[in-house]
């Protein structure tokens, strides 16, 4: 199974009707187990399942950067990965394992099933304001590079994209997924696997920015988020408190910075 499948439909336009065949982004369930026990089920677009698992569990404070673990995959008859099993010594699991989310994590919500409000707030210091500064034109170029490379979105119009860049505008990782936070988890997971997480300075995002996007970026210590759409109030408040620079409405050569603008020249 690819990342898209063709579906037939009827298109109604200006009083006429025609048969069409359109590519749609695939959504399927991925079950993540820890030592053989189900931890969560994520609705995601097929591909980069191991990166998604590592990124998600890192973002949820279940795994650490230097955790020693093994990932096993189980495929269905069509050869599509439907389960990932994390093998790890339980003493090496983080606090996130003790406050596991509910079994079903839908593709549009990164904090669904949290047991208590305190579970969504980190117990870490804010990101320090380094000497790195970015011209607004540089940030907008990185965001455009994301859109120029969103092949699945161009094909289907039905998925989100996330890209990570270093201070020199080099593209470190780009992933697409039907779920906003899934795409970010895949990017973080790849950066962890390739040992490039510390080089990531900017996250470019294709959709709106809500709390879970900011919290995952904070956990990964990526200081700048630039998105094409709006940010929620909680996302902005969180970004201000924890030292992230947050830009929204990045389009047509413009962007609005709502938090920590000192990193932008």
Notable features of this structure?
265 residues, alpha/beta, Cytidine Deaminase, domain 2, 2 domains, 5-stranded mixed beta sheet, 6 helices
CATH superfamily of the largest domain: Cytidine Deaminase, domain 2
Give the termini separation.
Answer: 45 Å
User: Can you summarize the main beta sheet?
Assistant: 6 strands, mixed
Q: Given this structure, which CATH class of the largest domain is correct?
A: Alpha Beta
Count the E strands: 13
Structural class: alpha/beta
Output the strand order for the largest sheet. Answer: 9-8-10-11-12-13
Write the element-wise H/E pattern from the N-terminal end onward.
EEEEHEEEHHEEHEHEHEE
Classify the beta-strand content into a percent band.
Answer: 25-35%
**Helix count, DSSP H or I runs of 4 or more residues:** 6
Q: Averaging pLDDT over every residue, what do you get?
A: 86
Molecular structure report:
This protein is of the alpha/beta class and 265 residues long. It has two domains: 28-120, no CATH class; 136-263, 3-Layer(aba) Sandwich (Cytidine Deaminase, domain 2), CATH 3.40.140. Helices cover 24% and strands 32% of the residues. The chain contains six helices and 13 strands. The protein has helices at residues 49-59, 136-148, 151-156, 180-193, 211-220, 233-242, and strands at 4-13, 16-25, 28-34, 37-44, 70-75, 81-87, 104-105, 160-165, 171-177, 202-205, 224-227, 245-251, 254-259. A six-stranded mixed β-sheet has the order 9-8-10-11-12-13, sandwiched between helices. The protein has a five-stranded mixed β-sheet with strand order 5-6-3-4-7, covered by helices on one side. A two-stranded antiparallel ribbon has the order 1-2. Strand 5 and strand 6 form a beta hairpin. The longest helix is centred in the C-terminal third of the chain and has 14 residues, at 180-193. It starts with a strand and ends in a 6-residue tail after the last strand.
